[in-house]
Amino acid sequence: MTPENIQRSAAWLAEYRRRGEAAPLLPAELRPTSLSEAFAIQQWLFIELDWPVVGWKAGLPAPDKWVLAPIANLQQGELCLFEQQSEQYSIEPELAFLLATDLPARAEPYSEAEVKAAIGATHLALELIIRPYRADAGVEFLDQLAAGLFNQGLYIGPVVAEHGVPEKFELVLEYSGQQQRLEAQHPNQDPLLPLYWLVNNLSSQGIGLKQGEWVITGSYAGVVQVPSDTELKLQFGSFGHINTQCSHRAMIS
């Protein structure tokens, strides 16, 4: 793809994000054909929308997949606000790692100990999921990577004590007198593994992480559907809970 087409792809996706609408499939000449092209579109999408990067989502890669996307929207408090209006919203229960020091891009890879030492706090969190494309668009992984891998933002919950989170625990979701019990486990067992990969992948591309940024590394219970405008409680084992409700807001551009 030419640099011009990368920017056109980002502008196309940005226009639908501004409207709070799922996009149709990009025109053939604007669809990414490689991981590097999809990542470039993703970065330009943030420029088009004039969004700051306040964090990253990450997962362990595969030979044909990079699982990473910047996060622009941080939320806390009584509401999780979504760009797209719906009767149900999708969330993912996660841990969010807050960086206490910069991890600038460099030629030498970071060790796991260096990355771990940069973490200032760990919080319970919810990834807020949106549908970037229409259900019938026929998109593939590179299209989703270009659009930010379903991420709309991050809801920050309470801090987790230093003893950390057990490998497995029970996640209990309560609303409207109903209770749903889910067996929770990180998809990579160790939630820090994707963080180590993210830091070095970005560093190799000249991108550093900064103090105050947040990183999430995978859902403990997949995608969880919750009703709109309803008080929710998510109990993370015995070590913390989140109380909030999901609602709609028009996007401000």
Structure description:
This protein is of the alpha+beta class and 253 residues long. Helices cover 22% and strands 35% of the residues. It has five helices and 13 strands. Strands 1, 2, 3, 5, 6, 7, 10 and 11 form an eight-stranded mixed sheet that branches. Strands 4-13-12-8-9 form a five-stranded mixed sheet, with no helix packed on it. β1 and β2 (65-71) form a beta hairpin. α1 packs across α2 (35-49). It is globular, with a radius of gyration of 18 Å. The relative contact order is 0.23.
- The percentage of residues in β strands lies in 35-45%
Low-confidence stretches: none
**SSE string:** HHEEEEEHEHEEEHEEEE
Number of strands: 13
- Fraction of residues in helices? 10-25%
**What's the shape?**
globular
Radius of gyration over all CA atoms, rounded: 18 Å
Mean pLDDT: 95
SSE diagram, text form:
Blueprint: H1 3-19, H2 35-49, E1 55-62, E2 65-71, E3 74-75, E4 79-82, E5 88-99, H3 112-117, E6 119-129, H4 141-146, E7 151-159, E8 168-175, E9 178-185, H5 193-204, E10 214-216, E11 224-227, E12 232-236, E13 241-248
